[in-house]
């Protein structure tokens, strides 16, 4: 059974800080072939599509397309602000392994 991804309060708060919802945009999380481990995440601001899963809180949206959804089942989308940089991160229980950069994984 596929469970939808979860989005942390920290990720929604960051979207509100940058005003994504005010501009009609959402954080798109997609999975594509490539990267050093076989799959890679594409994380960007984009307009929601008709077939996207939309996760929303207080006008802020995170969207996942139907093709990427099985790869992100039960994943957690978070925002990390550390000394080395700030970025959206994905904790994916479906990933068997990932590379050091955290944007590439295998299943």
Which helices and strands occur, and which strands form pairs?
Elements: E1 6-7, H1 9-18, E2 26-33, E3 39-46, E4 53-57, E5 60-64, E6 76-82, E7 85-91, E8 97-98, E9 104-106
Parallel strand pairs: 1-6, 2-5
Antiparallel strand pairs: 2-3, 3-9, 4-5, 6-7, 8-9
Description:
With 107 residues, this protein is mainly beta. The chain has one domain: HesB-like domain (Hypothetical Protein Aq_1857, Chain: A). The protein contains 1 helix and 9 strands. A 6-stranded mixed β-sheet has the order 4-5-2-3-9-8. The protein has a 3-stranded mixed β-sheet with strand order 1-6-7. A hairpin with a 2-residue loop joins strand 6 and strand 7. The longest helix is centred in the N-terminal third of the chain and has 10 residues. The chain starts with 5 loop residues before the first strand and ends with a strand. The model has no long low-confidence stretch (mean pLDDT 87). One of its GO terms (biological process) is iron-sulfur cluster assembly. GO terms for molecular function: 2 iron, 2 sulfur cluster binding; 4 iron, 4 sulfur cluster binding; iron ion binding. Pfam families: Fe-S_biosyn. InterPro entries: ATAP (IPR016092), ATAP_core_dom (IPR000361), FeS_cluster_insertion_CS (IPR017870), HesB-like_dom_sf (IPR035903). This is Iron-sulfur cluster insertion protein ErpA.
């Amino acid at each position: 059974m596929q469970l939808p991804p979860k989005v942390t309060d920290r990720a929604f708060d960051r979207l509100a800080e940058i005003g994504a919802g005010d501009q009609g945009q959402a954080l798109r999380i997609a999975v594509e072939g490539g990267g050093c481990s076989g799959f890679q995440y594409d994380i960007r601001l984009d307009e929601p599509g008709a077939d996207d899963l939309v996760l929303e809180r207080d006008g802020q949206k995170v969207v996942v397309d139907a093709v990427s959804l099985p790869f992100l089942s039960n994943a957690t989308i978070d925002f990390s602000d550390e000394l080395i940089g700030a970025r959206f991160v994905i904790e994916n229980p479906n990933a068997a392994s990932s590379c050091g950069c955290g944007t590439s994984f295998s299943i």
